[in-house]
Amino acid sequence: MTTQSTLKRDTHLFTAGKYLLLALILLFLLFPLYWVMITSFKTNMEAYQYPPTFFPYNPVLDSFVKLFTEHNQFFVYYQNNLIVALAVSLLCCIFAIFAGYSLARFKTRWNAIFFALLLVSQMFPVISRMISLYAIMGRMGIINTRGGLIFALLATQVPFCIILMASFFANIPKDIEEAAFVDGAGRWRILFTIVTPLVKSGLLAVGIYAFLMTWDDYLHAATLIQSDALRTLSVGIALRYLGELSYDWSLVNAISIIGTIPVVLLFFFFQKYMIKGLVAGAVKG
Fold first, then answer.
1. pLDDT band at residue 285, thresholds of 50, 70 and 90?
2. Are residues 181 and 105 in the same domain?
3. Cis ω on the peptide bond leading into residue 51 (within 30° of 0)?
C-alpha cells in the first residue's frame, strides 16, 4: 500500500513538473509576441518608459489610426507581399503536381539523379545562390520587377514542394490508376480527376508552406527589388519604418501586428490540414 502511494505521488509530481516545464517554454516562446501586442496599444512615451510596463496604463489605438490614415505606403507593401506570396504558392502547387507525379510513377534511371539534385539544392544557404541568381536575372532583364521576384522565390521553394508531393503521390495505390486505365481514362484525366483529389491535403500543405516561406522572405526582396513601389512587406518595414520612424515604436509594433494577421489566420484555419498532409506524406506504405 505504501509503495502504491509513493508511485501515485511520484506520478503526480512528474505530471505537475511536466506541465510546469511546458508552461515555462510556452511563456518563453509567446512573450515576444505579447510584448509586440501590448506595445502597439501604448503611447510612444509609455513605450520608452523605464522600467517598462507589462500592461498599458491606458490602452490606445493611436498607432493603428495613424497607420490607416497617414501611412498609405504600408498598404502598397502589403499588397505586393500578398500578390507575390499567392503567385508563388499557386505556381509551386502546379509544378509540384506534375514533377511530383512523374517522380512517383515513372521510374527511369534519371529519377534518382533528378531527386538527388532536388535534395542537393536544399543543402546550400540562400545567400550562396544570390550572386549567380542576380547575374542570371540581370541578363534576362527582370531585376526590379515583381515577376522576377516571383521567379526567384519559385526557384527557391519548388524543389522541396516537388519532394513533398512525390511522397504523397507514392502513397496512392497504383491499382486505382490501373482500374481507371481499364475503364478508358487517359493519363491526364487520371491525374486531375482521380489522383490529385486524393492528395488534396498534401497539395494544401505544399501551398501553405510556399505561402508562409514567401510571406516571410527578406533576402530576395531586398536584393532584387530597388523600387519602393515594388517592395514587399518585410523590406518595406525595415527600410522605411525602422529607418525613418524608428523612434515611433508603437507604430512599428502596430505594423508588425497587422503584418502577421494573414499568417496567423492561415495557420489557425488550415493547421489541421497542413499537419495531416505533412504526416501523410512522411509515411509511405
1. very low
2. yes
3. yes
Same domain, 85 and 186: yes
My answer on whether 54 and 92 are in the same domain is no
Q: Which residue has the higher pLDDT, 5 or 1?
A: 5
Cα dist from 164 to 43, 100, 214, whole Å: 46, 8, 17
Cell digits for 191? 491525374
What domain range is 36 assigned to? Answer: 2-62
With b meaning 16 or more CB within 10 Å and e meaning fewer, what string describes 190-219? bbeeebbeebebbbbbbbbbbbbbbbebeb
Residues 6+ apart with CB under 8 A from 60: 41, 42, 43
Based on the domain organization, do 8 and 118 belong to the same domain?
A: no
At residue 88, does pLDDT exceed 60? Answer: yes
Helix (H, G, I), strand (E, B) or coil at 198: helix
Q: Kindly state whether residues 16 and 125 are assigned to the same domain.
A: no
When mean pLDDT is compared over 1-10, 235-244, 253-262, the highest value belongs to: 253-262
- Could you tell me if 48 and 135 lie in one domain? no
- Is 173 strand, coil or helix? coil
Residue 180 has pLDDT above 60, yes or no: yes
Q: In the chain, how many domains are there? A: 2
What distance in Å separates the CA atoms of residue 178 and residue 172, rounded to the nearest whole number?
12
- pTM for the structure as a whole: 0.81
Q: Which of 62, 83, 99 is the last residue of a domain?
A: 62
Q: What is the dihedral of CA 166, 171, 174, 175, to 10 degrees?
A: -160
The amino acid sitting at 201 is S
Query: Mean per-residue pLDDT for 108-135?
Result: 81
Q: Are residues 86 and 16 in the same domain?
A: no
